[in-house]
Amino acid sequence: GDSVTQMEGPVTLSEEAFLTINCTYTATGYPSLFWYVQYPGEGLQLLLKATKADDKGSNKGFEATYRKETTSFHLEKGSVQVSDSAVYFCALTGSNQGGKLIFGQGTELSVKP
Amino acid sequence: DTAVSQTPKYLVTQMGNDKSIKCEQNLGHDTMYWYKQDSKKFLKIMFSYNNKELIINETVPNRFSPKSPDKAHLNLHINSLELGDSAVYFCASSQMGRAGANVLTFGAGSRLTVL
After folding, report:
1. Do A101 and B100 count as a contact with CB atoms less than 8 A apart?
2. Whole-angstrom distance, CA of residue A53 vs CA of residue A71
3. Are B32 and B93 spatial neighbours (Cβ–Cβ below 8 Å)?
4. Do A45 and B94 touch (CB under 8 A)?
């Protein structure tokens, strides 16, 4: 079945460092890809999405490009802030699956001042 | 505010009890979901309803019974609670068939602790 694999956390960075969180997927057909973020004590919020190959999703300085050839959707940010500390989830929805999101295991990011 | 709201936010109970979590969305969406987040933050879908009809049931024990009285509400009832049911339960909603990706909007979660 469809699945998503993320890099293990926790990831600890200093403020203004460059961030990459790797995400690869396995799916039949052409899934849509997402990054969701969960701040401490809160629910999940959509960070960005991409619906077809070579699409780039971007929001709040974060970017991810849908790479079909490598089945990847890595999350990047050029300069992280303390307020970016959260858990980041890569996810996909496949075709004809009733809209369900399949999540990766989450990557905890901690940014130190 | 337009949102997905869940109650209660926290629930502490004894093994063997029966409890319910309620979810309401005022986004006009036609599809609602329950997800379970375990202690390692892993999220797994449990159920999904589209216009009050069950469309996803992911091998969840039948002690869990979702009920959707209308498309704005999806409640989760759990019978005979077990220690392993302790988790954070998230409700979500989306509008199926909308152009573009099916984006889910999540509630803030309900943390269930079974003692």
Report:
1. no
2. 9
3. yes
4. no
**Nearest residue on chain B to A32, alpha-carbon basis:** B101
Backbone phi and psi for residue A51, each to the nearest 5 degrees, phi listed first: -110, -15
Give pLDDT tens digits along chain A (113 positions): 889 999 888 999 999 999 999 999 999 888 999 999 999 888 999 999 999 999 999 999 999 999 999 999 999 999 999 999 999 999 999 876 777 889 999 999 999 99
| CB B61, CB B112: distance < 8 Å | no
8 Å CB contact between B33 and B91: yes
Nearest chain B Cα distance for residue A99, angstroms: 6
Q: Name the minimum distance, in Å, from the CA of A12 to any CA of chain B.
A: 17
